[in-house]
Fold each of these.
Amino acid sequence: MSGFVVALFVLTYLGMALGRIPGLRLDRTGIALMAVAGLLAAGAVDIAFIGRAVDGSTILLLFALMILSAQFQQAGFYQFCATAIMRSGAGPAVLLGLVTAAGGLLSAVLANDIVVFALTPLLCAGIGGRGGDPRPYLVALAGASNAGSAATLIGNPQNILIGQTGGLDFWAFSAVCAPPALAALVVVYVSVRMLWRHELALPVAAARTMKGAAPADRWQLAKGVAATVAIILLFVTDMPREAGALAVAALLLASRRMASRDMIGAVDWHLLLLIACLFTVTAAFTQTDTSGSILGWLRQAGYSPDTVSVLGPAALIASNSIGNVPAVILITGLWPDLSDGALYGLALLSTLAGNMLIVGSLANIIVAERAATAGYTLGFRDFARAGIPMTLASMLVASLWLMAGGWLPPA
């Protein structure tokens, strides 16, 4: 049975790297779900094991924060931001800066996947409809959303998972991770500005309004802001984070104007299911003798993710093969006793590494897919053109910061 579990584990993460099974319309979530079904059918795990393996607090916190993001989306906040940017009348360089700042700052307090999901079609319509090339702005949006999300424990799924796993303090995390995240935003802007300079030379006319734009609902927007502040304040109390966030999310559902079905429907259920399945597959693998033998060999050889020299390359390779969320689940599952400094480093480096290739993070894939729906192709080479230099530069800055602060030794 141990050999079956190991084989299924390897095949699952191979599927995460490929993103699909050739010949089938099966994505990463479907692959992970099939693996769990295989484990159950073979008797390798039971329902009780799955209940123990899945970190319910992480799933609940993610769900609550997705409801919060849905509140802003339903209130028309993202459309308001896009309209404000397009009405600025700024030149391409300033417009690029506004997109980068908006994507990064919003992603620091809201789920970055939902930020790019909402803003991508709006930027395509606003910039493409006025004679500009949306692609450099979309690359900047994806890069900024990843970089900005690294600043806080609620910016992206992998940070939420790391925070829950390690019981990290919200403000202590931001004190360590926010400075290199802000530096990474500058790197994103400079990289796109330099490497897409010819496309950015195309003028983008300002407009009074966006096609089909509706004014933001100020009352619903105010509720969203109040809910965000309440969740962050609850994080510094003794109440479990997931309980406080879920209570605030439940209050948001009690609305006379917004249907709870629409709010709950905006939750990324595919991502939640993917995370739950990967928790199970990884936990099953860690129970095998093979897992113990591999970990013993890695520790004996000095390959443990508590140094920059190991964690940096590991995050870069794993994030751009299996994706940064699966990479974090895998690393924290195999090494559950990482120090706070190693967890800070894992959050920073895995998130910034996701900017390298279009497959590096879910946010990048969402931008490409939403752009295609709007009629624009953001290809692999298009993204890598600025993605590779921005990733290497931002990871270098983050690594130097972590070493200088004593949070992560060089080797």
Amino acid sequence: MFTTPAAAALRRRFPDAFIAYVVEPHAAAVVRNHPALDEVIVAPRTGGIGGLIHDVSLGRALRAKRFDVAIDFHGGPRASLLTWLSGASRRIGYEIPGRAWMYSERVARPRVLRARHSVENQWDLLEPLGIAAPDREADAVSMAVGEGEVASVARKLSAAGVNQSCRVVVMHVSAGNPFRRWPLDHFAAVAAALAHAPERRIVITSGPSERDAAASVAAAARGALEPDAAARILEIGELSIAELRALFDRTAVYIGGDSGPLHVASTTAVPIVGLYGPTIPERSAPWRGTAATTVSIDAGPLPCRPCDQRVCAPGDFRCLTGIGPERVVEAALRCLA
């Protein structure tokens, strides 16, 4: 998601260029319909020797296209290898120990986590191409929405009893990284508090592997409410990334941690309440214009924050548990107002 402004900037800088984007399957929907791109190359990840053989084959295919420039926004071993295998005369990447030789032009990247947004960090790779610094207003993240996804979400909302007069609150209760997962009982408390207004519908979403978490939050919230209010806590089934994007056009406020869905939401005008544990808003808050309402909530300064999210040094995940439900409810009500 954070590279979508860079794709648009490349199109502005090189209006007649052929621009291709290499992406793994789980994120392909983000860029599949990006207007700046001529081709999206989906590269499944496969482990072992078979995966290496596949990547060498993909590298040959890239080389056959005779690209002039290859930019490695990812910086991981696989991305470095594919950048090198592309054979592009200009291969731009970060100054990464052990892999910097794969690039013809290298950009310094401090090894410490900085209070600088990821969009700006990745944008550094565009400077060798004469592209000026990004601007949130002109260079917001973007994701196109398809008519099929809009229709699918409309059907799911209708089946759940949501009509045009309802104000939809979406709460995404999972995160791909367990170090960014706010406690489920906190989510349930927020859902219950927001469900008291008759016009609201609280839609609980999660990733495919955490449907049980969504069901648990919904059940706990309903259990704390009278029947009429409990009926306003909804689950509408599994949604794809593209369907989430369509849902956010129909949403009054989004609440969730620093995960993919938050950044999908940031491609729309929906007010966002973002919850930051081991990460910091300065680095990964929604990157969009100031006209859109964004509230970032964290536990405040901690000696262990931000961290590399491999082990919790204090052992109690205080960066997450230190965010109380009442703060999130208050922020959501401000957004709804």
